[in-house]
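Appendix B, example 12.
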Amino acid sequence: MKKEISHCVVMKESKTLVAFFTKGGATEEYANIIAETLTENGLLVETCNLKNDIPDIAVFDTIILGAGVRMSMVYRRWKKILRQKAIKDKHLYLFLSSGMAADEPDKAVGKYLHPLVEKYGLKPDSLVSFPGKVPEKWAKDENIQKVTMNLDLAKKWAEKIARHVQS
């Protein structure tokens, strides 16, 4: 009697990291919407507030990083991920939340993200900028435009990421 051998193919499940640093809360809201959307689209997602921890990205296949901009600077803790050597072997997506993104998202990407990409020799799959929040102390000034967040933009971006990662 011949024994049949069963062959299984075990596929490694792709892991995605959504890491962010925020001061005013906008970047965290965007990161949460992105993580939620990716999860709804079948991806295994872990989120990390870079205020609390800098994760080792080696165990992730896809890295999504978000940071706010304040006083014309991207928060530094975010850059600690960009310096990790393993980042060059990952699907990489970068996003900002900034006041400039309300009217000129491409200009915000050019001003804040492109220099970082060049500095660290990165090849991200996508760079975007979402409208941030106006700090409360400035919100009372009538001459300052009240930037409103647009979580739907982040949701649509995350859906594109999910399709790209799964293809």
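The longest strand covers residues 62-70. Confidence is low (pLDDT under 50) at residues 1-12.
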